[in-house]
Each structure stands twice: as C-alpha cells, then as structure tokens.
Amino acid sequence: MVALEGGTYTISTSSGQAAQFVAILTICSKVIYLESMGNPKFNIPDFEAIRKIMHDTGIPVIVDNTFGGYLIKLIEHGADIVIHSATKWIEGHGTTIGGVVSMEFIDKHTGPKNALELARWLESRDDVLWVSYRGFEYHENAKKYMWNGFGCIFAFGVKGDANVGATFIDALRLARRASTTHQQLTDEEQLSAGVNKEMINVSVGYEHVDDIKRRLYNCV
Q1: Which terminus of the chain has fewer Cβ atoms in its 10 Å neighbourhood, N or C?
Q2: Do residues 202 and 118 touch, judged by C-beta distance below 8 A?
Q3: What CA–CA distance (Å, rounded) separates 179 from 194?
C-alpha cells in the first residue's frame, strides 16, 4: 500500500480480494476506486464481494473500466460509477483526448424532464419571445415517434436588439448561440434557415433544473 497526496491510498495486489481493501478503511474513507483489469498484470478484482462490504459501510465504488471496455458490465456487479478512457480504448490511436462516465443512479429520463420543465418556464416569461421544444403538445410527429422521451435540446429567443443573443451567451457561459452551428452561412442564409440573432440553443443535462433556471434568470 502506498500513501498518495491528499489522504489517498493505492493498493498493488495480484488477487483483488475484498479483505485487502477492508484493511485500509477508516472513518474518513469516502470512496473506493478500482480498475476492472489491473495494469500491467490484468488481474481482476472480486467486484461483488467488494461491493457488498463497501455498500454495507456506505462507501461508493468507482471502477475504471478502460481495459474491460464493454466486456465487463460493472454496474450489474455493483459499481456505482464506471469510467472509461476514450483515448486508450474507444478511440485507440491517441489523436483524441476524452473520457466516459456511467452512473447507476442516473435516470435516463432526467435530462428530457429537465428540458421540458425549463422550456415551459421560459415560455411563461415576458422577456422570452418564443420557445421551440418538441415535447410541447402541438408537435404531433414528436408524440407519434418519440414515445420514450423528447430529448434534451431546445431553442428559445430572447427579447432585445440584434446583439442580444451574443450578450446573453457571454453572460451565461452555459448555452451556445444557434448561429455558431451555422456560421458557415451568410446572415441571409441563416435567416432563411430559421436561425435568428436572438436564438439560443440549450442542451440540458442532469444537473438540478432549479440550478439551470437560476443561471438563466440572471441573464435573461
């Protein structure tokens, strides 16, 4: 066992048995972090035994599944959070830096629910010109085909002058101007495509919807 900076400990083990992790637990332990396959020996921990002990003590289990990839379904074996290095495994040849995080307790419908609530909240505001979200009742084709949710992306327009969209984005640092996705077009072509100066695209994630509202409220 080697002590690292900040009260973190790393264990080098060839067996991956739960008892070796239990030995270092203290009242200050916050999380246990494993690799699905050790490097360089490719040893595999006993995930279910470790999960039982850690969950009994209220400690979440994070597993780096870079080497295991899609072959080991660690959420099913008790991991709370699974991460992957997209650079090493998914992308492979080192031209892109990235990562992936999977979490057991995230509801896949949270993003669309947040988006619908946020879109309705914006629609009710006097300083918003319009809101376009496929989850609104009048989108018949969306209701017909998108039975599992209406997605996390919508657009809205802010009242103001020709620079209102850019001013809003600069203040918010959370969304993006719709015109940036069509910047290869001229102003006339953008207008023809429905991209107006006041148009803001929003991609809603899993953060609490009240936090997003607070950020928007301070900028609208």
Answers
A1: N
A2: yes
A3: 10
In this structure, the answer to whether residues 10 and 51 fall within a common structural domain is yes
Q: Which DSSP state fits 9? A: E
**pLDDT tens for each residue of 13-27:** 555 567 777 777 777
**135 & 55 share domain:** no
Range of the domain at 168: 110-217
How far apart (Å, rounded) are the C-alpha atoms in residues 56 and 174? Answer: 38
Contacts with 31 (C-beta within 8 Å, 6 or more apart), sequence order: 59, 60, 61, 62
Domain-terminating residue out of 63, 86, 103:
103
Record the pTM: 0.51
CA dist 105 and 102 (Å) reads 9
